[in-house]
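Homework help board

Subject: predicted structure for assignment chain

Our instructor gave us this sequence and asked us to write out the predicted structure in token form, then describe one feature. I got the tokens but I'm not sure how to describe them. Can anyone check?
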Amino acid sequence: MWSAELLRARFAMADLPWQPEPLEERFFKDRDPADAAVLVPLVQRQDDLYVLLTLRTAHLNDHAGQISFPGGRCEPEDGGPIETALRETVEETGLAREFIEVLGTMPVYQTATNFMVTPVVALVRPGFTLHPDAFEVEEVFEVPLSFLMNVENHQQRSLHTPIGERTFYAMPYNSPENGKNYFIWGATAAMLRNLYHFLSAKA
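My token output:
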């Protein structure tokens, strides 16, 4: 099981040999690429680290109704993806920066909608209070990191679309806290899959 200390040590390693998951075929190729960043918040609980995720509201233009990390499009005044991820996390969830310890970044992930997303991995100290933005976020919830880093919970699925077949990862999670089934898939699952490769690489 991963701890805060082990994660700090892992992100401090230079030239760790690992390969990101191969990208799927691209869709919406006529869209210009746009830089974005997300925060991968790892909440430190007594029994495990937990990944904080958001369920997006159904009326949004991009990825409506999907489960995602807090984050969004990079703005020029941000000065970099880390600042984008922190700013968007505060705006979307109300998680105060004083509880966040950035560990590092993962390789840029290109989504099917042509966003070039930098995942920013961070530890989150408990004791925070959330104030989700009701326009963008329907729900904020947590999933044990041990569940998401267990390869037995990584499913490969296919979806037939008008422009071809799409293959993607999914990590369905049935929460014992509220009995809800959270369908984690697409870019979020792919970035978690990359985190799995990074954490499981031999040092």
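Reply (TA_rk): Your tokens look well-formed. For the description, you could write something like this. The first helix runs from residue 4 to 12. That's the kind of observation they're looking for.
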